[in-house]
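2024-03-11 09:14:02 INFO worker-7 job=invfold-0412 stage=load source=structure_tokens
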């Protein structure tokens, strides 16, 4: 049998999802809800905590509790990897017209705000092992944030590493002012003669750190997906390692695998 706070949370959740309580509208005060539903004040607070952790409501200091506007959903597909590779030989205008984020969100290029920051760092022991290089080797760390113009938080937190000596032959690849780069990483690597043959994506889930929760605008009860992505070229060399952290409350992961037919 559901507890009283669970029943109250369910009633309010249904009212929010049906539009009875619209985005941006203010919920009744805690005493009002207590009287309306015939439950104690602590029960109301428990119910509101549930909805807050689900990302459905926000508390505003001195104002009250409000229905949180729905976030843009992201449907991330592994077919984006093939999409990115096929774009390498397209014209600059074709590559600039759309990208993986646009595919994931249904938004246009003009609907997005993109930020990139490049930093030269030394390879940690873990990264050195993955790349097959020595600890302390020079890496280009790239941090990316993309968001909708209508929202204040990014769709994900992405950090990528490239081996500095692999890409330094093209100085444009070392300059974050060239982002967003039409065609993304696969096209960037192609400018220094690197073709990607395999992409490995390892997906885990965990609670966000306090900093991640703040950056992604998620409540303490919402987990994050972490995709550890490795790009391997046609010689079997690891050329890019990335970690992408995605909020669990607005991300769907779709994995498609094409299987060979049995011979007839």
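2024-03-11 09:14:09 INFO worker-7 stage=emit residues=264
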């Amino acid at each position: 049998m559901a507890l009283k706070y669970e029943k109250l949370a369910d009633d309010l959740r249904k009212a929010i999802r049906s539009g009875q309580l619209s985005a941006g509208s203010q919920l009744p005060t805690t005493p009002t809800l207590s009287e309306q539903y015939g439950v104690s004040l602590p029960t109301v607070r428990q119910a509101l905590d549930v909805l807050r952790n689900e990302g459905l409501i926000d508390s505003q200091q001195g104002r009250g509790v409000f229905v949180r506007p729905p976030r843009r959903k992201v449907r991330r597909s592994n077919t984006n990897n093939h999409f990115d590779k096929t774009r390498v030989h397209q014209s600059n205008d074709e590559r600039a017209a759309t990208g993986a984020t646009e595919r994931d969100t249904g938004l246009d290029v003009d609907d997005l705000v993109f930020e990139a920051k490049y930093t030269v760092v030394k390879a940690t022991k873990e990264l050195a092992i993955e790349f097959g290089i020595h600890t302390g080797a020079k890496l280009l760390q790239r941090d990316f944030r993309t968001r909708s113009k209508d929202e204040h938080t990014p769709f994900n937190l992405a950090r990528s590493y490239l081996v500095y000596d692999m890409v330094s032959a093209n100085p444009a690849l070392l300059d974050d002012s060239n982002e967003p780069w039409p065609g993304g990483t696969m096209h960037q690597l192609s400018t220094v003669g690197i073709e990607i043959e395999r992409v490995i994506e390892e997906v885990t889930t965990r609670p966000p750190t306090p900093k991640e929760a703040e950056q992604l605008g998620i409540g303490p009860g919402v987990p994050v997906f972490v995709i550890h992505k490795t790009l391997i070229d046609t010689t079997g060399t690891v050329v890019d390692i990335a970690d992408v952290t995605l909020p669990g409350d607005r991300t769907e992961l779709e994995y498609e695998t094409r299987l060979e037919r049995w011979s007839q």
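2024-03-11 09:14:09 INFO worker-7 stage=report msg="Residues 74-254 form a domain with the Chorismate lyase fold (CATH 3.40.1410.10)."
2024-03-11 09:14:10 INFO worker-7 job finished
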